[in-house]
Write a structure and sequence with these properties.
- This is Multiple inositol polyphosphate phosphatase 1.
- Keywords: Cell membrane, Disulfide bond, Glycoprotein, Hydrolase, Membrane, Signal.
- InterPro entries: His_Pase_clade-2, His_PPase_superfam, Histidine_acid_Pase_euk.
- The protein is an alpha/beta fold.
- The protein has a single domain (about 45-465), classed as Phosphoglycerate mutase-like (Rossmann fold, 3-Layer(aba) Sandwich), CATH 3.40.50.1240.
- It is built from 20 helices and 8 strands.
- Strands 1, 2, 3, 4, 5, 6, 7 and 8 form an 8-stranded mixed β-sheet that branches.
- β2, α7 and β3 form a beta-alpha-beta unit.
């Protein structure tokens, strides 16, 4: 059901003229676009972690299944021998918590009462706009999210044909978070590969596929849930997000609150930053899930969007990235796991053995990718993001929507190069972020000899033990006076 109104029309045997007119108006708004049309909004670049993947790669709006080969990708005498990909789940429904906030906002609009001058009609349009979100949705993967994964699989298989031949299908290694949206993303990716190998044939059930269903490993893909130091000092610490809370009541957010309250004809005292943010995200959900530019998008201009993007980035920065050291250090085990796969591939290749796992696919969350990228030194600004330097951070590197949109992916590609001059130079590695070559954080080069990359990250690979990093410091509970 697209917007809810079609089912309601079918349920009404003899609707009144007024009701029919209202429903037809709703249908007209819902039918702004046909499926497959490219929908964009001026707000699209600012949705943070709720950003559509195609807004980071706009070419996919018109060519969703065709890869665009980055000219920096190695070719010629270098052959890819292994791909290790860390993939965020595809587009999802809002969480139950977000849905409850949306209902509260909807009630505020309905309680405005009659007689209000509303020349734009925006408040009325939103009151009439179908509130179609239900509690059961609670962050589940949507059909668009499955499509994100199927299309990503098709593009990667076309981009790296030596790694995705039909005979390698049974050797795929899939690991996923326990969250259904991640498990379902892995299954959809496999369906995309099936489509690549068997065009036009309906894929079998995941349990019947040769490679079998993904294996669940939360210690890798949700490491933050298993790190006591992070849980105590950040997740459960009321002061950890100090800058987020201060920004919510700061001048930039107050200006946005005043503008939105005036536009919706609702007392500003009835609003807060959380309600404004969920209204903003509702524009993004309608756009991402249904391909519809809803009236919620008309509530905000780009100045508002930049403020709300910064609020979201502040949260991600302080809770998942450079705000606290433990945010990134908690991901050491995942980083080491990636290099263990690469090490094994190098060893097998050196012994002239087939690589046992030419493709390793790991499905997680934005909260999985951001700490890992921070651990590797990416997207670090000269100054930290704070509640007080919004204007100074206008051109910041850390913009979560550009880094970890839905279906975002960090890919390590290991190459064997025939023309290497020394044994150490036989293997080279490149990284891609969202299918674009990611220059090395420490050198800005687009390729590295594998041993050189390991040497650069030797502290993480050798010295970062998750059990030690995540251990809470001991506090002396007694004091012995001398």
């Amino acid at each position: 059901m697209l917007c809810g109104a079609p089912a309601l029309l079918r349920a009404c045997v003899a609707p009144t003229a007024a009701l029919a007119a209202a429903l037809l108006a709703t249908l007209a708004r819902c039918a702004l676009l046909e499926p497959g049309d490219a929908v964009t909004s001026a707000l699209s670049p600012y949705f943070g972690t709720k950003t559509r993947y195609e807004d980071v790669n706009p070419r996919l709006l018109s060519h969703p299944e065709s890869p665009q080969r980055d000219p920096e990708l190695l070719a010629g005498s270098c052959t890819p021998v292994q791909l290790v990909a860390l993939i965020r789940h595809g587009t999802r429904y809002p969480t139950a918590k977000q849905i409850h906030k949306l209902r509260r906002l909807h009630e505020l609009l309905q309680d405005r009462g009659p007689g209000r001058a509303d020349p734009r009609g925006l408040g009325d349009a939103l009151t009439d706009w179908p509130l179609w979100y239900a509690d059961w949705m609670d962050g589940q993967l949507v059909e668009k999210g499955q499509q994100d994964m199927r299309q990503l699989a098709l593009r990667l298989a076309s981009l790296f044909p030596p790694l995705f031949p039909r005979q390698n299908y049974s050797r795929l290694r899939l690991v996923t978070s326990s969250k259904p949206r991640c498990v379902d993303s892995g299954a959809a990716f496999l369906q995309g590969l099936w489509q690549h190998y068997h065009p036009g044939l309906r894929p079998p059930d995941i349990a019947e596929m040769e490679c079998g269903p993904p294996s669940v490993n939360d210690k890798l893909m949700r490491f933050f849930d298993h790190c006591e130091k992070f849980l105590t000092e950040v997740e459960r610490n009321a002061t950890a997000l100090h800058h987020v809370e201060v920004f919510k009541t700061g001048p930039e957010m107050q200006s946005t609150l005043n503008k939105v309250a005036a536009a919706l004809q609702v007392p500003v005292n009835d609003f807060n930053a959380d309600l404004i943010q969920v209204a903003f995200f509702t524009c993004s959900f309608d756009l991402a899930i249904r391909g519809v530019k809803s009236p919620w998008c008309d509530v905000f201009d780009t100045d508002d969007a930049k403020v709300l993007e910064y609020l979201n980035d502040l949260k991600q920065y302080w809770k998942r990235s450079y705000g606290y050291t433990i945010n990134s250090r908690s991901s050491c085990a995942l980083f080491q796991d990636i290099f263990q796969h690469l090490d094994k591939a190098v060893e097998q290749k050196q012994r002239s053995q087939p690589v046992s796992s030419p493709v390793v696919l790991q499905f997680g969350h934005a909260e999985t990718l951001l700490p890992l990228l921070s651990l590797m030194g990416y997207f670090k600004d000269k100054e930290p993001l704070t509640a007080y330097n919004y204007k100074k951070q206008a051109h910041r590197k850390f913009r979560s929507g550009h880094i970890v949109p839905y279906a975002s992916n960090l890919i390590f590609v290991l190459y064997h190069c025939e023309n290497a001059t020394t044994p150490k130079e036989e293997f080279q590695v490149q990284m891609l972020l969202n299918e674009k070559v990611l220059p090395l954080a420490h050198s800005q080069e687009t390729v590295s000899f594998y041993e050189d990359l390991k040497n650069h990250y030797k502290d993480i690979l050798q010295s970062c033990q998750t059990s030690e990093e995540c251990k809470l410091p001991k506090v002396n509970s007694t004091y012995d006076e001398l």
